[in-house]
Amino acid sequence: MSTSSQHQFRYTQTPSKVLHLRNLPWECSEEELKELCKPFGRIVNTKCNVGANRNQAFVEFADLNQAISMVSYYASSSEPAMVRGKTVYIQYSNRHEIVNNKSPGDIPGNVLLVTIEGVEAGDVSIDVIHLVFSAFGFVHKIATFEKTAGFQIPASSPCWFLDYTNPMLPVNYTAIEGAVQTAVGPDGKRKEPESNVLLASIENMQYAVTVDVLHTVFSAFGTVQKIAIFEKNGQTQALIQYPDVVTAAAAREALEGHCIYDGGYCKLHLSYSRHTDLNVKAFSDKSRDYTVPDPSVLAAQGPATGWQNPQTAPMYPGSATAWQNSQTQVPGGQVPSWDPSLQAVRPSYVSAPGTFPVQTGAVPPMPSYAPAAMPAASSPLAQSSPISHHANPMGIAQPSGASLSVPGSSPLMQTSQGFVQPNARPAAASPAGQHYYG
DNA sequence: AGCACA
């Protein structure tokens, strides 16, 4: 036995600003502690619920004399110190300050642990969580998991993770899209739920696939709200957000397995993302949010009428409108306000999404616009020629305006010419929040 | 009823 432990219980302890209190009622609160001690001085710190029985505590006074006065008082008092009817024994602590080593969960930090009760798994999406907590500031990252037995997150359990801090990727979709596959992996439930957001993997990416290219390709099936491009295991992937599942399903059905360019280049493999609302930088080279009004034309467009609460809109298949499938139809009443104007730039001859001709050789009845009529650098969408597998008159213009000049490449995007004509886009007809390249 | 924290 060491001398220090012998000294631990000595009768005459050196006075300390810190008092050790024992025989407290179980889980004595800090308030109860202060009520007992504050008549003797100013309390600068406490530590409650100490010991296996959680019935000890420490109180630190601002001044040593205050601690001495308390000890002295009760040493000579006929009335012992009491809390909730229990006699409290008070001594000088053998330390001279309280160090508050709180339990991990009590340490103020920049990461909150949120427990959501009374919901089924997946009822509260990461998007909703993001929305809620964004009200108080920038949310850097979110990880969700199910706590079943124990407190550890098993490596095999689903753990949805979003990173909002990557400057290149406003959202680290790499992680979450990867998590989807492991989540539904081994137990046979590989069925991915439909989503209004498509995950596109681009194989054999011989040529650059830009946001603009993707926008053009995927706009053939409806309004593309947001796009995010990222790298995953050296492969380029992209997320394409539609307003609803129906449109996304149509696009997926039509585009799956097809190539953006002739010759098997930039082959698309499409699946459903777990996302319903992407959090992307509105104008970056790797992402685009078409629901955010282009600042350069915002003034001319008036108030934005984009999806202000987009994460809920695509959630209900019942609200899916018919116009995506029947593009000549006037949209129904539940269509957002910008939709009717969309019809103005959506020609009736664009075939239904299901028959969207990609590299299949099915040539739609499209007018042949003169490529020369198009501003050379105005838009990467500018595929004015009809479907042709023989030549790509302009190539896919890069954002810089330079042409790719890919011989023999015939991009998918040609079918989009009908409703996105850079040289004929009516300013008023462009749906609000749908300003493509201002 | 007798000293946290590492």
Automatic annotation (TrEMBL):
Residues 17-95, 195-275 form the RRM domain. Keywords: Acetylation, mRNA processing, Nucleus, Repeat, RNA-binding. SUPFAM superfamilies: RNA-binding domain, RBD. Residues 400-417 have a biased composition (Polar residues). Pfam families: RRM_1 (PF00076), RRM_8 (PF11835). One of its GO terms (biological process) is mRNA processing. GO terms for cellular component: nucleus; P-body. Residues 373-388 have a biased composition (Low complexity). CDD domains: RRM1_PTBPH1_PTBPH2, RRM3_PTBPH1_PTBPH2. The keyword Transferase does not apply. It comes from the Eukaryota. The keyword Amino-acid biosynthesis does not apply. Plays a role in pre-mRNA splicing. Binds to the polypyrimidine tract of introns. May promote the binding of U2 snRNP to pre-mRNA. This is Polypyrimidine tract-binding protein-like 1. It comes from Mucuna pruriens. The gene is PTB.
